[in-house]
Specification:
With 420 residues, this protein is of the alpha/beta class. The protein has 17 helices and 14 strands. Helix 15 links the parallel strand 12 and strand 13. The longest helix has 32 residues. It starts with 13 loop residues before the first strand and ends in a 9-residue tail after the last helix.
Amino acid sequence: MMIAPCTRPEFLEVSVIVPTRNRARFLLRLLDALRAQTFPADRFEVLPVVNATEDDTMEQILRFDTPFALRPIETDAPGAASARNRGASEAQADLLLFLDDDVIPSPGLIEAHASAHDTAERFVGIGPYYPVHLRTVDFFRIATRNWWEDLFMEMGRPDHRFTYRDVLSGNLSMRADLFRALGGFARDFAACDGEDWELGVRVVRRGVPVRFLPEARAHHLEHETMTLERSFVRARREGRGDARISRRFPELEPALAPPWGKPWDLSRRRAPVLLARCAPRTCEAPARALARLLPLLEGMRMRRSWQCVYHFIRGYWRWRGYFEEMRAIRAERDSGTPSEETIVLEETTLLLDEGIEEALRRVDRERPSAVRIIHGGRAIGTISAVPGAEPLRGAHLRRILGGALADTLAANGEDGDWSR
């Protein structure tokens, strides 16, 4: 391992950590974009963590001229989680900013992260990284782009309830002391995807706020790194990651477990589970053959059929990875690997007779995981706990009450505007 020598600047505030492996051209584009940052170049450093690389990434970094401190690190530890932890351990600034190597930061990205953290509060900051819009796109690109854009649009809502799945390492910041207190990224996710979600569970469990930072935006070059075939490989890795998360945090297991349903249920949602569980190797060749049908469906402009086939195949590979990892986890447990204790999710009873605004203020004070709503002496509804989600805020309650419960009150002659 090696670290390029560097003298710490006097006013260093941000350490930008970028894990990379065999993707020199992506990394150099990111470094070039960082030269155009509005944040002063003498107040941030960049640490590319070159992870078990087989190309000339290290040599190209050392030849790259930048106005900011550039300190490349070489490591042989497998996986992006270990690379990020390695970068964090060598960071010299108080604020850690993690970026993926296939994003292009906007000029104000670092400044937006630094300004948001200019407070005593410790939180996790998430910046959006939108897919690049292309002139010509296929069904796969449309589906991928829509997923990312919908995700960030929802996270930008003031009444959005953050969950562990909102903690995305592609554009993430937090104070170094908070990162150490959380224990960093889980190193046993080298063969999985989801190490950022695993960190997200610990963030939520410890009551650490998650903040969406819309000004810390970047462009995502996923169209150059992700293909249809690779999306199935990623689905398998995501399934493995979900298995590890569900076993480590028991309260999440019901949400991540397979939808077994009734024995006679052969729906599109359940069929991939059965195939992946009962005949994983037998169904591998048919799954690959079915994938070759997708270009034909796209050529016929049969988008709905394309979506059904794609999600069926992706479901098979996801559950294939899930069951594979479960077998590995059982072996680990036989050797004494522990899991976390189940946490208790607290419920609060709200009396709406006291007034809507008072009920919202009480939720903001108590931050329960679930509420039971009483009006006129009787229960009219329950907002159940969501494992892996932040505690409820008044804004969450107002959004929920703008729907079904508002209709319930209206039917009883009440006149309340729950959606304001």
